[in-house]
Amino acid sequence: MVRALIISILSLSFLVSEAQYHYDFNQNCRDAYSLVLSLKFKEGEKLIKAEKRANPDNNIPYLIENYIYFLTVFIGERESDFDEMEDLHDEVVDRLKDGDKLSPYYRYSLAQANLQWAFVRTKFKEYVSATMEINRAYRLLEDNNEEFPDFLPNKINLGLLHTLIGTIPDKYNWIKKMVGIEGTVNQGTAEILEVLDASLKSGEYGIYKAECLFYLSFIQLNLSADKKKALDYIDLINADTINENPATNPLIVYAMSRIYMGNGMNDKAIDLLLSRPHGSEYYPFDYLDYLTGLTKLQRLDKDADVYFKKYIAEFDGINYIKASYQKIAWYELMFNSPEKYKEYIAKVEDNGYDIIDADKQAEREAEKGEMPNPVLLKARVAFDGGYYERALIEITGPNRDFLVTAKDSLEYTYRIGRIYDGMEKPMAAVAFYKMTIEKGSESETYFAANAALKTGIIYEKQGDKEQAAIYYRKAMNMENKEYKNSIDQKAKAGLNRVEND
Predict the structure, then answer these.
(1) pLDDT band for position 5 (50/70/90)?
(2) CA 446, 450, 290 angle in degrees (round to 5)?
(3) Is residue 132 helix, strand or coil?
(4) What is the DSSP string of 219-288?
(5) Any idea where the domains of the chain sit in the sequence?
(6) CB within 8 A of 215, min separation 6: which ones?
(7) Is residue 159 within 8 Å of 179, Cβ to Cβ?
(8) Topology of domain 373-501, per CATH?
(9) Which residues pair with 99 in a beta bridge?
(10) Which residue has the higher pLDDT, 119 or 230?
(11) Residue 141's pLDDT is what?
């Protein structure tokens, strides 16, 4: 009897150890997911804990929990959070590994957790580990798509990966080989659009609508020749929040304001950013202060510096610190004095990191010690805000005494080209772009490279794919050091579009 009892206990223990957690994306989980994506982490955590108590074998709350860890580190950029939440993330992954392997959510959840942490690692320059996690996520998603082709959520991350890999310039093909992914912008966009279409027609997939719109907005704005297409997503975002003001979701505020800024609708971006939610119920999204300062600087508002200073004072992460000091220096140069410009540009070298293009460019400006031409600078920031007439007035006229250096002359033709481009006078823009390319192809500044990129976009819109490809390649082959990564990525995306359509 004792022997039989021991065997029974061991058998029971074996069955318990082999128990598989299931996946139930029930209403409680859907509500928690929506709260977390609205950055209402505390409220989301309450529902997650309630779901764990009510359904201890459900793995979905653990997946949603990983969203909190991911967004906390990705938005906050604090190394202390990264160290703490990496352990929590590992616990989630261990839990997800014990899930029901026959469920389409099994590989999907593991891929999501890996991909999110890969993006986090890039913030802290852990590129090798990030590459391995991206590779792991991609394999999981591919296998899942093969086994469960009708499981649409899978296509969101597959689409994102196919899109991003399609923007890597050819000289970095070794990255593609390391990651083991092939794809194009068009392929990735089509996959995400498939899920979006389903989310608009089916209540089952409706929860993924905001996520699809967020990614599509980013792709359309940064990797497409037609930025105006992104405005279509504004209507869908508004339709998605009929019973809730979109300005109550910081991530939606970010997406919509970036779309407005990318389409020369700066006033709308300012209104949206100023009405964004504040309060202890939201995880702080300090980057929106930086964006507010940027939009106000572009409108030449006299209080633009307030928001950059707020960002510097309250954000203890990594990025846009150098860029903020640079923008305050610009503000001082345009509205006060060269001496105040020097005071703030000197702070660039002593603060922040030079990981992203905006911070790298700020660092180069500080190191060179070359003060921007204040007339061209005003035209630049006004143009960036979509105030094209004002920008044109700033730099066109009989008096060109403000053009002192060869760099000034190069920027002058570039700025006029950009203004005409914004005013939808493409051939006038191309004429000035080509002058810029001819004069500045060997310059370390970004003027000629971006002129080539914009020329390629114009030809692509006109249906001249051959000329578009020529100028996209020119953009990638320039000697510029300013905004190199960003321009190369966009040029590669353009080349990808015209050669793979």
Answers:
(1) very low
(2) 70
(3) helix
(4) HHHHH-S-GGGHHHHHHHHHHHTTTS-GGGSHHHHHHHHHHHHHTT-HHHHHHHHHT---STTSPP-THH
(5) 373-501
(6) 156, 159, 160, 192
(7) no
(8) 1.25.40
(9) 21
(10) 119
(11) 95
3-state secondary structure 456-490: HHHHHHCCCHHHHHHHHHHHHHCCCCCCHHHHHHH
CA triplet 222, 225, 229: central angle to 5 degrees?
A: 80
Enter the pTM of the model: 0.85
Mean pLDDT of 473-496: 91
Tokens matching residue 270: 């300012």
Q: Which two tokens stand for residue 496?
A: 């990808």
Instruction: Give the tokens for residue 114.
Output: 């890996």
Asked whether the predicted pLDDT for residue 261 surpasses 70, the reply is: yes
Distance of alpha carbon 101 from alpha carbon 86, whole angstroms = 24
Pick the more confident residue, 399 or 394: 394
Tracing tokens 């989301």 back to the chain, one arrives at: 44
Q: How many CB atoms lie within 10 A of CB 48?
A: 25
Question: SS3 of 399, please?
Answer: coil
Rounded to 10 deg, the angle between the 406-422 and 426-440 helix axes is 160
Residue 439 structure tokens: 């004069």
Buried/exposed code over 210-232 (b: 16+ C-beta within 10 A; e: otherwise)? bbbbbbbbbbbbbbbbeeebbbe
Could you tell me which residues are beta bridge partners of residue 21?
99
Distance from C-alpha of 138 to C-alpha of 180, rounded to nearest angstrom:
8
- Amino acid found at 110: L
Token duo for residue 55: 């359904």
Q: Decide if pLDDT at 408 tops 70.
A: yes
Contacts 24+ apart (CB under 8 A), 383-386: 383/415, 383/418, 383/419, 383/422, 384/261, 384/298, 385/261, 385/264, 385/266, 385/295, 385/298, 385/299, 386/263, 386/264, 386/265, 386/266, 386/298, 386/422
> 96-122 in b/e burial notation, b at 16+ Cβ within 10 A?
beebeeebbbbbbbbbbbbbbbbebbe
